[in-house]
Amino acid sequence: MQQSTFETAFKTVKKLVEDFESSKDYYLASSYSEQSARHDFIDKFFIALGWDVNHETDKNPYEQEVKIELNVNVRGRKKRADYAFYLAPNFRDVAFYAEAKKPSVQIANADDYFQTIRYGYNSETPLAILTDFEQFHVLDSRYAPSIETSLDRFVKKYTYKDYLKKDTFAEIYYLFSREAVSGGSIEKRALELPKARGGAEQLGLFKGAYKPIDESLLDDLDDYRNTLAHAFKNGKPDLDHWALTEIVQRVIDRLVFIRFLEDKLIEPEDIISNFGTKSESVWKDFVSTCRKLDKLYNGAIYKKHDILDAPDFRFDENVFSDICEKLSSKNTPYDFDKIPIHILGSIYERFLGKVITATAKRAKVEEKPEVKKAGGVFYTPEYIVRYIVENTIGKLIKGKTPDEISPMRFADIACGSGSFLLGAYDCLLRYHANYYNKNPKKATERDCIERDGALILTLHKKREILLNNIYGVDIDQQAVEVSQLSLYLKLLENETLGSTAASLRAEAGETVLPPLNKNIQCGNSLIEQDFYQGVQEVMALYEDKIEEEREINPFDWNERFPGIMKSGGFDAVIGNPPYVRQEMLGEFKEYFQRKYKVFTGTADLYVYFFERAHQILREGGLFGMICSNKFIRANYGKPLRDFLAQNSQLVQIIDFGELPVFENAATFPAIFLTCNRKARSQKFIYAPIKRLDFDSLENEVDAVGSQLDNRALNGDNWTLASGGEIDIIEKMKKVGVPLGEYSKAQIYYGIKTGYNEAFVIDNETRKRLIREDPKSKEVIKPFVVGDDVRRYQTNFKDKYLIFARRGINISKYPAIRKYLSAFQERLTPKPKNWKGIEWKGRKPGAYEWYEIQDTVDYYEEFEKPKIIYPDIAKESRMTLDTSGLFAGNTVYFIPTDDLYLLGLLNSRLIFFFFRRISAVLGDAEKGGRLRWFNQDVIKIPIKTPSEKYSHSEIVSLVSSLLTLHKQLPGAHTDFEKERLARQIESADHRIDELVYELYGLTAEEIKTVEGSFNAKEN
Could you tell me which of 619, 681, 608 has the C-alpha nearest to residue 643? Predict the structure, then answer.
């Protein structure tokens, strides 16, 4: 198709205006149809803007940038949007919608505005178009629509005569042309529009309308769940929380699925809005409809339920009627034809984070304990799902025929709401459609039908792919149900009335939805029946304890998937395993220790999913998961690192570092791709991602990734760096000795405390105590924490420690004894698990006060000169203390006054090394700082100076830096501050040069080190 330019577009549209004007009365007559208007004018208008409306280039029906709906009207019900515009290669997310009308209709009416806005809102597109060519209205679809306010939501209105004005037509062209949209024109224009928060009234919005579609629908579903839980509990008080959770979930799933059928026009009539018209009972009509739908569609959703579908189930129907009224197609802002399935999945994922709890009389909805502990539910972004799927399943099926793909099995063993299963299914559907369109002679009538000049998959074929290839397991029965629901919605995504869905229903003995109970199963992927072996009387322990049994829920892979396991296992395992901290694993630890090679007592739950996945993969099968990146460097990750290096072929590690991939989550993730075969030598791609505003993850990986080999996996830690960086690190190891050997002194941490307030006082309190009792000065020590320790300086903040350790008789210091006694009184009764102050009677008037967590007798070391540094920092923040500072447990210190060592530790080269071996603190708000753990610090290679000159110059420079940093806070003029800052910078730079020389780095290697800082300064 010829590339559109503004001049050619303007010329074409100008001719369309002339044609319209020449026979205006004819085109404005009511007899002139919308279909004709589209053919004569609207199609050509968008073609002029560069869109392939007639699919002259885009022949594949699954990869067309313009999707056009036929002008159908089913029994008076609203049809779909006429035009949906996409940008290749992303055919999943709509760029914008356009709704067409015939020119005789006044398009500025509430109903048409409402419907057009609803299209955009549900697909999360900020702008939508309503046009009959005579008029062209741009509407704001960022916020939920309502009939009452829809007419206030226009952004700009144009008439066909405006198209003749170059400047005015340019507004349209540079907003909606193919060229402009690919450059982000719609998003940029949306940023210029008024914000809703705080200004909702001015925008004509109702309360809550400004919420994104996922937040809004989630809030409504939460509200429906809460309302139904109370109503059902009041109507049937004997319901426990498991039954309540199940039946409420089932009702909501049924309603959502019905709305989906309505908006997809798979069902010929509105269903929910007609409840109560047949039996005068909304609930009875709902139940009878579900029984009919069960016969047509099958699946777990409409399966007869002993409680819900029982004729004697009674509750206050008014609450259900109210929900149906809000959710009906006539009133709701939600269009389930337009909400992307993966967005619906993200909503359900968060919805599953809550559970209904019940007492004898009440029911309430609350977060699951594990969700509360984790800080929420974090849904995997769709671009990550797509990347993992394409690099596992996509690679496995590439070049294969449908018959060759048919026996392949792909699984998510912690499937949740089914996001990865949806991604896998979507990949397979697209591949099959592409294959048949390229090889039409290979397609049978059961595989494809022709529509709009292209082959599309039949419902029969999509069922077959789903049943053959997609498998999932989750411990949560509600998650299993939602996964099945999501896959059913995907199955029916492109079906309509009169399509293969209707024809399949007519086939004898075959329902629309296939049974998925063998594919998507409930169980604990990590625990088998042998959990009960070797534990004395364990069966008796769990007998009649349903809650505990639900948590265990053993899942034997050989019994549940016998055919797959006998044939060698799954072809691919993908997903995002749950993150559960080790302290919450409880009784499972003993089992994991006995069962898994990757066990360590401090490992999070996700590490076991790695080993389990590789256990159930066939030889050569592919593995792809996203999880916390902590195990790459943390001590507890060593067994998993060894397992992966020794038992699999690493393919890719995509490390997001400190980037907040999961919104508001404190976990920083990485993608791990492996092949399930032992490798003699490792060659894999490591891609440290530095930003999230990339166009595609694929391109970003290509841009920043580098190939690594076995050298990256040597030793206790993985050194994930470029080949050139690894060469530098290995050189440093060869010429230096580990800090633990260089410094004969032990590295200490500061005093561990239960409650800092128990013994840390401010300067005013210190002065008062010393004034009352001068001897108190002996046991009051200056005190700092990690945040006070800076590079070559300490920001002492007048905090002091009452240092009354073992062997010191507090009765010798009356003022301190009085102060601590008063403090102790304020803490009566003591808090639960109190670990702050402990009082022990020795003899009348003599008390011993000490901090009971501390058992190491190293207090005298605080009084000596020492190098101190914080336990968490973005950079090297070492300094020398000679003033006898005491420190809290967020500070480490080395008892030495070695200025040469201090200079090396603060150098860029040493920090370059440490960045590659240290753990990252998983806290999005604090920027992913480094953990300066002892086990990593002692590995820093320290080069013993071969020349006295280098040693003495570094010592001299460090001494100067210590002095300069002391002087800097006292500088009052800008000149003085700048002078000192320049001197500090110069001294730092010179030390870096000397350190590079000491370790023998070449000019090219220095460039590599410096380049790593330029890419991302820490």
Answer: 608
